[in-house]
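I'll show a record.
***
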Amino acid sequence: MAFRFSLEGLLRLRATLEQVEERALLRLWQDTRRLEQEVEQVAALRLRQRSRRVPSVAGGALTGADLQFAGFLGIRLELEEQKIRQQLLAKQEETRRQLDVFTAARRRREAMQSLRDREFNVYREAEHRREQRGLDELFLLQLLLTRGKRPAKFAQLAGQSMPERWSEKSRQGPGARRWPGLQATFNKDLQ
């Protein structure tokens, strides 16, 4: 008989839920990484814009409108960076919560898997004992047959006790009248 885990459906459900939560966590990690890159890009753009403005101001090449536009652009980049940082913090918090959900789903699946493994080990041990018992019976049967004795197992199979099975009354049963040669061989084996 093959091993059958009674809660196999629940184990598959737990594994599926774990995979769903894992995919959601991976999406959040990707979103977090994307936001981190956006923050880095805006910060690099602000730095470039500031570094270009400083030499131009020192050389007097910029007009008042250029300075005003550069100031406006700097403020706009700073606001954009702050907005992205806030999104990043919110996404990191969401990622932490999703990590907790995923961890809980994994623990539930692992608990179910552990139960399945324990049941499988019990099944395997019982199967091993059953096979060993069969081999032992086979060995004893072969041993008894080679010595010319009849094992008690045959009498038990017939639902009778050993003395009743091999008694004088049973030796003279209906088979003795029908097949006298077989009965003689049977009696000879008993002696």
Observations:
- DSSP finds seven helices and no strands in the chain.
- Helices lie at 8-59, 64-147, 152-157, 162-165, 168-171, 174-178, 180-190.
- Confidence is low (pLDDT under 50) at residues 160-171.
- Residues 155-190 form one domain.
